[in-house]
């Protein structure tokens, strides 16, 4: 049986295809289902929400690898093989009917859309008098111009690199988007355009553009663990994952779309 863990073992595209084909061909009862995902956190999420006979496999090369795997000649007509990815700034209507996306921009933002998840995290780890709703909305607003720069970069091919970091600003008491753009050496023209657009975004639009790494870095900087130490970005993400329940997933668009798909093809990725 295929291992549905996070270890790539340096598998190539050909290795993965051959492995999946071998298992599917041996599955006489057609119970085996395959879900390709981007990374290790997606595997952890998948194991929480999909049925036990569904194998979650990591792509050999992120989002691009997911597309290549679904479109390869050997798997292109196999309905038992699907993929789930972050939407980021792509138009999901252009995807294959076997490519599904998380609600909001990415996995992390979908987790945070759930009230119980964000409240549990804030109540335990955040050192602030703000409510969990106020804290998250404030974080998304502060990041909004930076998030829009990410969106423009992807959609317009600007060739920008996002690597300066901003955790130290928050730890010193204040996030400054002007300073962050300066650190990244982005143009003033881009900064002002992003700030103008950010000023009129709704909460729902903020959920659609906020980057998962950015929101986890933001929460990392304003949170402490039980020993009084700052949490790491990976700790934030795993804490959100642990708090999310299978029942929560049933309230999402992603769940509904996979259910519709499996009814159409008489499959059972989910119950």
Describe this structure in words.
The protein is α/β, with parallel strands linked by helices and 271 residues long. The protein has helices at 13-26, 40-49, 62-71, 107-113, 115-125, 132-156, 167-171, 177-184, 188-198, 203-209, 212-221, 233-243, 246-249, 253-265; strands spanning 33-37, 54-58, 81-85, 99-101. Strands 2-1-3-4 form a four-stranded parallel sheet, sandwiched between helices. Helix 5 packs across helix 6, helix 6 packs across helix 10 (203-209) and helix 11 (212-221) packs across helix 12. The longest helix is centred in the middle third of the chain and has 25 residues, at 132-156. The protein is globular, with a radius of gyration of 20 Å. The mean pLDDT is 92.
What's the SSE blueprint?
Elements: H1 13-26, E1 33-37, H2 40-49, E2 54-58, H3 62-71, E3 81-85, E4 99-101, H4 107-113, H5 115-125, H6 132-156, H7 167-171, H8 177-184, H9 188-198, H10 203-209, H11 212-221, H12 233-243, H13 246-249, H14 253-265
Parallel strand pairs: 1-2, 1-3, 3-4
Helix pairs in contact: 5-6, 6-9, 6-10, 6-11, 11-12
State mean pLDDT (0 to 100 scale): 92
| Count of strand segments | 4
- Give the overall silhouette: globular
The H-and-E topology, N to C, reads as HEHEHEEHHHHHHHHHHH
Beta-strand residue percentage: 5-15%
Number of helices: 14
